[in-house]
């Protein structure tokens, strides 16, 4: 069995690719586990400053492997066993862990979306901080077609990204939207003819900035809407104070004045 996820780390950027192109990178047990394990490995590597998440072949991810639905339709006992097998001791299923791990990383995660990005694939993309999408990509919260609802954290991500009525329409109908419409709705950050190349270029730009400031920015902006204004202002003061006078902050200023590329230290 080929590796479900392949990773190449270069110049602070982890290029992470779903690697099941013959199945449009459909999610199965080994893919879920590979995503969780890959995220944990990246978490241990302080030299990683940015992650780019993409899919090999003709699409980002077509969602759950259809063979799993055939099992569910033909054998309720097998369906129950599958549901039990993906549950973790913490209560989150492995699909939720495969998505949440990326949003919980200390570093930015950019999803490069082309072709189909459906069901669980869309939920995985929504776990990224930024989504660059091909105009002709196809995105859908398609779980309702199988009598289900998003169960990998997609309901939370949708509620944060789009208006409540838009989220409900997408979940209730399972309709497919193009990359262009996804940007209009707020599901994606911007369109790119070549999302992977654009994502790697953006990642390189971010990786060239102070990793301390970038990580602080992610902490500051993630879940900002869930804080009170006083809480957000307090966090701003805390993060800013922690950065002032550090080696990387001084290097950012010095390199700017000297008109040279900065040489930042990775966090310990």
Automatic annotation (TrEMBL):
It comes from Parafrankia irregularis. This is Enoyl-CoA hydratase/carnithine racemase. Belongs to the enoyl-CoA hydratase/isomerase family. Pathway: Lipid metabolism; fatty acid beta-oxidation. Keywords: Fatty acid metabolism, Isomerase, Lipid metabolism. GO terms for molecular function: isomerase activity. One of its GO terms (biological process) is fatty acid beta-oxidation. CDD domains: crotonase-like. PROSITE patterns: ENOYL_COA_HYDRATASE. The keyword Isomerase applies.
